[in-house]
Amino acid sequence: MSVFFVGGINRSGTTLLQSILCSDAETNPLIHEVSYLRNIVDAYVSGQQKFDEHNKYYFSSIEDMRNFTAEWANAFLDKIRARYPGAKHLILKHPPLTARFPVIFDLLSYIGEVPRFFVIIRDPRDVVASLVQVGERLRKKGEAEGQTLPRDMTVLGNYYMQTYMPALSYQNKDYQKQITIIKYEELVSNPQAVIQNIRQASGLALEEFNETEGWRNDNIDYDDLKRNNNAWLSDLWGKRLSNSRIGRYKEILRPEEISFLEKVCAGPLKSFGY
Q1: Measured in Å, how far apart are the chain's first and last C-alpha atoms?
Q2: Is 106:45 a contact under the CB 8 Å cutoff?
Q3: Which DSSP letter does residue 217 get?
């Protein structure tokens, strides 16, 4: 059994990519985010930072703490496998975990698990434009999370950078072999070539994927999300591929915001060919 992690910033197409990987008969269905694993990984990262101050009293060494955390993470993965006994491969996603992919790799490698990472990238201008809209919806509902997504190009541009850079800059050669980068714009505009790349990288047949139809093997309750007026819900979820959102930032962001954001995210704009 193997485990695949889908990464990328919120609004980059992570749920779409997860749905494609879950279209294989040997995977778990499309399910909500694996945020519990983030808590495990963050506990380890925080534990390292505070080892001498706090955690040397509980673990004999950082390696001892790593071993304990790796077993904890493995127990959680076993719990997921028991929850979906028909799945030979786990497909898991939680965008904030993307920056922790190197840590996940190190932890799971210790217990003999070789995770595979699929990272989707998208034009930072379109991502930020979508985040601006989500933030507005959250604030309209009076939710505190809305304050973390202000209409501030510095804040949102740095959020983009901080999501991807740790995952893509880690130089461990074994880790680099396990990463596949998917470009959102190519996926929704030229899906056949991208899907073939995903098949080759994952070893999955993806036999239920059909670009002209809705998502298959999907356990997300979209009606419930609508009833609860979920601010993160996209009206493209569950539907056939669409390239209608490419370049939509021009309708949402002001020219001066676009210009400033292009400076903040100059690196990925150039590196990813935007």
Answers
A1: 37
A2: no
A3: S
pLDDT(233) > 90: no
CA pseudo-torsion sign 36, 37, 42, 44: positive
Match 């898991």 to its residue by tokens: 92
What's the confidence (pLDDT) of residue 109? 96
Q: Which helix (H) or strand (E) holds 261?
A: helix 255-264
Residues shown for the chain: 274
Angle, alpha carbons 47-49-53 (nearest 5°)? 80
Residue 161 sits in a domain of what CATH number?
3.40.50.300
Tokens 């040997």 belong to residue:
26
CA angle (150 as vertex; 147, 155 as ends), nearest 5: 110
Domain span at residue 243?
Answer: 2-271
Residue with tokens 């190197």: 102
Cα(74)–Cα(112) distance, integer angstroms: 10
Which strand (E) or helix (H) includes residue 257?
Answer: helix 255-264
Into how many domains does the chain fold? 1
Q: What's the predicted TM-score (pTM) here?
A: 0.95
DSSP string, 145-172: GGGGS-S-HHHHHHHHHHHHHHHHH---
Instruction: Report how far residue 51's alpha carbon sits from residue 59's, in angstroms, rounded to the nearest whole number.
Output: 9
pLDDT at 216: 87
Round to whole Å and give the CA distance between 90 and 99: 20
43: tokens are 């506990």
Which of 94, 76, 83, 66 shows the shortest CA–CA distance to 6?
Answer: 94
Q: How many CA atoms lie within 13 A of 74 on its CB side?
A: 17
